[in-house]
Amino acid sequence: MSSPGLALAPPAKNVVVYRNGDPFFHGRKFVVNQRQFLTFEAFLNEVTKSIRAPLAVRNLYTPRHGHRVAELGDLQDGCQYVAAGFEKFKRLDYLNHGRKVLHGTSNRNGVQHCIRGSCRTTTSQHALGCSYCSVFRNGDLLSPPFQLMLSKSPPLQWDTLLAMLTVKADLHSGAVTRLCRLDGTQVVSGEELLNGGYYVAVGTEEYKKLSYFELLVPQDSACRTLWYV
Asked: 130-216 belongs to which CATH class?
């Protein structure tokens, strides 16, 4: 016979959580049950760590209309939510991973663009700036790359860029001091970054040459194209 406590326990809920204002974060899956999370705050703390939020997560919103979730019991099984700190909810097409943001972008520099989930690459492989790139964490083969959005005008100072990487990468070794290509060569300015390129954030330790791309980028990804230069 099952105990009355177990019979009355609510079933676990499967939810997906996105980062507020990040159109390239594909979401992180969570299984929510009372044994693991006794309070809503405990769940928010776990979300903060799991999605590597730059600031502590204090609010959850529905992705389409931005309705705030007030307590753990309001979470619905199979639904998606957007995690935020104390900032306002940012309206993006989270469920399509930012494809509406990318749709219709011009390609004046001859670089790869993803439009509605498909790839289109022009002849030139050189870009003066970068609208977004993917960054791995040095020596980490468990975490997928995070997306770094960059502005071409005005371009960010290199120290500012490294500071942004430090917050997003959250390396165990501390601050990001270098950004390397997958072959280990160091990038020294924002002008060298390629749109859609893959890089590795490195701290004070040596660069670890591993199969980041092969192991952490899904083979069926619609835009599984690699830039080395």
From this structure: alpha beta
Domains in the chain: boundaries: 13-84, 130-216
Q: Calculate the CA 146 to chain-centre distance.
A: 4
Tell me if 51 sits within 8 A of 60, measured CB to CB: no
Question: What is 13-84's CATH superfamily?
Answer: Doublecortin domain (3.10.20.230)
**How does residue 154 score in pLDDT terms, banded at 50, 70 and 90?**
low
SS (H, E, C) the chain: CCCHHHHHCCCCEEEEEEECCCCCCCCEEEEECCCCCCCHHHHHHHHHHHCCCCCCCCEEECCCCCCEECCHHHCCCCCEEEEECCCCCCCCCHHHCCHHHHCCCCCCCCCCEEECCEEECCCCCCCCCCCEEEEEECCCCCCCCEEEECCCCCCCCHHHHHHHHHHHHCECCECCCEEECCCCCEECCHHHCCCCCEEEEECCCCCCCCCHHHHHCCCCCCCCCCCCC
Does the fold of domain 130-216 match that of domain 13-84? yes
In contact, 222 and 115? CB cutoff 8 Å: no
Q: What is the pLDDT of residue 117?
A: 33
**pTM more than 0.70:** no
